[in-house]
Amino acid sequence: MLRYVESYLFNTVTTVTTLKDGKMNNSNIQKTIIKLRKQLQQANYAYHVLNESIMEDSVYDQLYRKLYTLEQENPNFSNSNSVTQRVGEKPALHFTSVKHNITLYSLENAFNLDELEAWKSRCQKYLGLQTNESIEYVAELKIDGSAISLTYKNGLLVRGLTRGDGVTGEDITQNIRTIFSIPLRLNLDNPPDILNINGEVFLPFDEFTRINEQKKKEGKILFANPRNAAAGTLRQLDSKIVSKRRLQFFAYSLYADNLNIENQWNSLKFLQKCGFLVNPYYRLCKSLETVTNYFNEWKSAKKHLPYMTDGIVVKINSYSLQHKLGFTQRFPRWAIALKYPAEEVSTIIIDIIFNTGRTGAVTPMAVMKPVLLGGTVVRKATLHNIERISQLGICIGDTVVVRKAGEIIPEVVRVLKTLRPFKIKTFQIPERCTRCNHILTSLSNEVVIRCINNSCPAILKGTLVHWASRDALDICGLGEKIIDLLISTNLVNSISDLYYLDFQKVSSLERMGKKSAENLIKSIERSKDKSWTQILYGLGIHHIGYTTAMLLTENFSSVKHLSKASHDSLMTIKGIGKEAAQSIVDWFLIEENGKLINKLNNIGFVLEDKKSGLDESKLSKHQFLNMTFVITGSLNTLKRNEAKDLIKELGGKVVNSVTKKTNYIIVGNNPGSKLSEGAKLNIIQLNEAEFLKILKDTNIKNDKIHKNQEYIK
Ligand code: IVH
Known about the structure:
Number of helices: 27
Bound molecules: 2-(butylsulfanyl)adenosine
Shape: globular
Structural class: alpha+beta
Oligomer: single chain
Strand content: 15-25%
Distance between the termini: 53 Å
């Protein structure tokens, strides 16, 4: 492997030198373009299919940029299968319907092992086999996404279609091309004239959550589950939006003439060889018993997968047996899906309630007749927001379908209106908070309604639950019930009150003996030792999840320092977005919050990095960690090298070309083409004064900045 990397780097360097010479003739240009495409294609394959990195991001970007520029300057060598062509220039106006080369069949379902056994007997009978004659199977995971078909002509991807009705699908080639685990060119020396591939496009859970969180922030309607999100994304008209969502693809079947492949097992191996990502957990099963073991193993193991699977697919391995069995109207006789117990069930709505959460957001919840779902009894399900309620048209008494979306919180998916009873109860969307009676507000850009009463007990409860949670202050024994008691008895009205609890009063609370009270107070006391990151996260500031809190505490070694940070300086931290930056600034502007910080200090919390203390020289040392800067034009007060050194000192680096990974462009006098390249990619521009201001805000001690104080103002 190392040798490969070395030879690759050697080739890269040669390529770049040749380009620098600027003396390339057409033949050299073409050779360079081909070489760059190959290198980038290999890097993509390694990263997206093999899950390996053979090239540093910055090298990838540099090569990509070179290729892009060469292709722009030499349109005669352009090629729609180049790595630079994954995202279409213009959104599509609509999708055209196209007939599939090979009909996409669906699968018959078995819901238990008896039904699987019955399928096997049917196959044996059809094939004229004795019951003791064994058949070989391939068992695969059934990925819960969206089926597509791909066509490769002479090794090049020419078409991608949705499943549609199986006979005709929609042409979504432009979107398919954005999926990096789908090769644009097959990794075969002699590809067949036409190769048709089927497989499943899906969204991993983390990406599904990220997209929904983004949608929530934008006040848009959420995707109900990863499957809908994958299907919805595939049918996006703008392939730029598709390219921003990390869709993935597992190939599971292929059709081509004269390939000499005799069974499903070898076809999966062949797909891998072609450069496709094949779900790695397929298994060759010599008997149905092995299939059963596979099914049972994955029943519990599937929860550890980063994507959703709703069962297994069992396929008879031999193509000649498959051929003999053929198809019914809808299904192949040689394959069956064995489903895991439903994660969607129906139940009846008893009530609809409105819960105020930690941020004041009011979430409608359905209270339901208890029902078994994915192994647990479920009594409540989220209805997300008011808009979702009206979309569903839900009433009390309705029968609804409830689903565990990616094993997260159950949600109501749809109302079975045909089962609606004659007598139904409607319900009112509340105008006031159900806990504190404060009038609710809805901000114009949000679909959520909020309680904005700072002393609302529901908000206080959410705040305390969060403060006590595992990743925050991890206060063992301080659960929801105790928190309810502490609030209702007026013993606690804020986070800081927890640290002044009176032992006598706590031990006299309902169902709370001396021992429990002692333990609770001890674990509250112990929480004072928690790290600056845990405390910051525990404060529950809007948009500040644990990883964001980590980023902040890595960059700001104390609350004192963080409280003074400007929006711009926060934004220079890679990973801190606009909302998080604004939220931090806003939080510290609220007087109450300042008082809380003082109280926490007095209680004995260390609101700073315990290692570095308040050593100003260490503050924000990593302000520009892993950030890339491009400088264009001449600067007024700093020499280019001085600017470079300053950036380096803070963990960043200055590079020569602009890519989508560039964080900032520092724009001086008479800027060059990098300015417009950056503008196209929406890279943030800073003039020299703004750049120096960021450095000043980070308190870095450097003569260059202090000398330039005047200029900053
Ligand atoms: S084989 C003729 N294999 O399940 C063969 N399908 O419920 C048909 N699916 O439409 C499909 N993982 O979208 C096959 N490993 C797998 C699969 C799989 C997921 C989907 C596929 C199909 C649906 C049927």
